[in-house]
C-alpha cells in the first residue's frame, strides 16, 4: 500500500473528467491567412510613400540685417549712436583707439606733431619761393621794359639816320654831277663822299646797337620763362613732399584712432560693445536693421542627396522653435530659391542656424530659401511677427516610391554591387 508505485499512481490519477475543446476549422485559418497575405500584398504594391528629410535653418529678412565687425584691435573710446537710432550711410558709430604708448608719450601723437612741424616748414618754404619768384620776375620784367624802351628809341634814331643817309647819298650824287659840269672841284666831291661813308658807318653802329637791344629783350623773355619754370619746379617738389607727408599723416591717424562708420541706412538694433571695452579683430560691434523689410524668408541648409528631388515651388512644412509644434502646429512654406553651388563654410558662418556638423563634414550642403505663407502668427488676439535669426526646422518631401520598392532597396544595392561594367 505504501509502495512507491502506489504513491506515484495516486499523484498522477485525474480527479475529474477531461474535456477536449474543438479546434478552429481549417478553412477559417486558411481564409484569415489568405486575407492577411492579400491585404499585405495590396498594401505594399499599391500604396506610395514619399521620403522626407528634416533640415534646420533660420528666419532671415530681405534685405538681411547688416552685422558690423571690428577690423582692428583696440579700445572703444567713444560711442556716437544709441540703440533704436535711425542712421544713414557714413554715420559715425564708434571711435576705437589703436595707439601705442612709450615713455616719451603716445607714439602717434608724437609722429603727428613732427609731421605738422614739417608741413609748417614746407608751407613757409613754398611762401618764400612764391615771393622770390614774384620778385625775380618783376625785376626781369622791369629790365625788359627798359630794353624795350631803348629798342624803340634806337629804332627811331635808326630811322632818322637812314633818312639822313639817304639825303647825303642824294647830295653826293648831285656833287658828282656838279663836278662833271665843273661847278665844284674834286676836293669838294671827295669831302662829300667821305661824309657819306662816315654817316654810313655811324648807321651801321646804330643798327648793331638796335639789334643788341632786340637780342637782350629776347634773352630777358627767355630768362623770365626759365626762372618761372625753375621756381615752379621747386614749388612743385615741395608740394609733392607736402602730399607725401599728408599721406603719412593719414596713416598715423589710422594708427591712432579709427572711426567705424555705417555703410548702409537702417536702424541700430543692438550695440555689442560699450565705451572702455577692448575689441579684437572680427568682434561684432552692432547690428543694423534695414529701414524697410520686404519679407521674411527661411534659409535652409540641405545635403546634396536631397537637392535633386527639390524644385522651385515645392511645398514644405515648417516648425519654429519659438512656436512649438505641439501647440501651434506646423506652417506651410514654398521653395523660392535653390542654390546651384554648395555653400562655402564662410557663408554658413554668417548664419547662426547653420548646422555645425556641416562646417566639418565632407558632405556638401546647398542653400535653399523658403517663403513662409504666413509672415506673422496670431495668438490670443496678438500679432506675433517672425524675427530675424529665429531658428526653425523644416520637412522636405523628396522622391515617391511604392512600399515594396522601399522594402527591396537593400536588394537593389546588392544588385548594383554584383553587376559588372556598364556599357550603356
TrEMBL record:
GO terms for biological process: protein secretion; transmembrane transport. One of its GO terms (cellular component) is membrane. It is found in: Membrane. The keyword Transmembrane helix applies. The chain crosses the membrane at residues 20-45. The keyword Transmembrane applies. Belongs to the membrane fusion protein (MFP) (TC 8.A.1) family. This is HlyD family secretion protein. It comes from Rahnella woolbedingensis. Keywords: Membrane, Transmembrane, Transmembrane helix, Transport. It is a single-pass membrane protein. It comes from the Bacteria.
